[in-house]
Amino acid sequence: MFYYLVYSLTFAVLVFGTALYVTRNSWLHYLPALPGTSYIYSRLPNSFAGDIEAGLSSNTFDLGANVDSGDGRAGLDDDAKTEILKIMKRRRLRFDEARRVYMEQRFSANGIGADGLPKDPKFVSFS
After folding, report:
1. What number of other Cβ atoms are within 10 A of residue 74's Cβ?
2. Residue 118 per-residue DSSP state
3. Residues facing residue 112 across a β-bridge
4. Residue 44 gets which letter from DSSP?
């Protein structure tokens, strides 16, 4: 009797573990980052050329014109770069999708709906 319990429990754990492994892409990004799974320190790029090399550019958000014109500014905002790179790494998204997720988070934190209108019930719009 004891062996049946052990075997059935082992089988259930194997089936459950296999199901979790197969579906890991759909639930893994909900877990917090474990210590030691990310870099302790990574230097952010400090120019538009560095931003392009870090993957912070796309066809719809092209920084190539800034590099071609010799723009000497420090590149994109450091806080936004950090958050977007985290989103890209954690959720395995491309730059455009990570930028969209970041902006939706910023909108939500500032009381703005997904459609761009304020969530304030006192808001009046004349169109």
Report:
1. 14
2. B
3. 118
4. P
- pLDDT tens for the chain, residues 1 to 127: 888 899 999 999 999 999 999 998 888 878 776 666 565 556 677 777 777 877 888 888 777 777 777 777 766 788 888 888 889 888 889 988 998 999 899 998 888 887 778 888 787 777 6
CA–CA distance, 114 with 121 (Å, rounded to integer)? 15
Structure tokens at 111: 């009381």
Q: Which three-class secondary structure state does DSSP give residue 112?
A: strand
CA atoms within 13 A on the CB side of 31: 9
Q: What's the CA gap between 74 and 85, in Å, rounded? A: 17
How far apart CA 64 and CA 49 sit, in angstroms, is: 8
Q: In which region does residue 51 sit, left (phi positive, over 0), alpha (psi from -120 to 50) or beta (all else)?
A: alpha
CB neighbours (10 Å) of residue 41? 5
Model's pTM, two decimal places? 0.58
